[in-house]
Amino acid sequence: MQTIKDKVTDFKATSKVRSEAKQEEKAEKELAKSRVEVAHEIRLAREAEASMDAHVNKAMEKAAQHDAKLAPDKQQDHGKADGLTSNHGTVKSDSTNHSDGKSSSNIPEHLSKFM
Question: According to its UniProt record, which protein family does this protein belong to (predicted)?
Answer without folding.
Answer: Belongs to the LEA type 1 family.
